[in-house]
Amino acid sequence: VQLQASGGGLVQAGGSLRLSCAASGRTLNNYAVGWFRQAPGKERQFVARISWPGYNTYYADSVKGRFTTSRDSAKNTVYLQMNSLETEDTAVYYCAARPQSRQYYSRTYRREDDYNYWGQGTLVTVSS
How far is CA 80 from CA 27, 83, 94, in A? Predict the structure, then answer.
């Protein structure tokens, strides 16, 4: 499966952005999708995960209550809605996918090596 992340840009603190992760080559059905980010000079970190079929989400503490991930099976796309953005949210954001059976819908999958497929990053810059 090929993943394409988009939607990044420049936004002021307190603003919102919605990132998209569009898949091609294969349906995202039966795949969990994760979001990660990498700030300048820092390691890549987990942000959020949405299970298949999509009713279970999991977030890093740093974004809980501000970010929401969702999926649209018809569009084969996963979204990351980011509200109340802070300068600390500035980073390159990546989406990633891994096969996931329904019975494992609650697994957190917060490690990079949990994922088999990665998209290119999209840059989010939050200005003060």
Answer: 18, 10, 10
Query: In this predicted model, what pLDDT tens digit does every residue of 85-114 receive, in sequence order?
Result: 999 999 999 999 999 988 888 899 999 999
Beta-bridge partner residues of 72: 77
Cα–Cα distance, 38 to 118 (Å, whole number): 14
Residues 6 or more apart in contact with residue 126 via CB below 8 angstroms: 11, 12, 13, 15, 85, 86, 87, 88, 89, 90
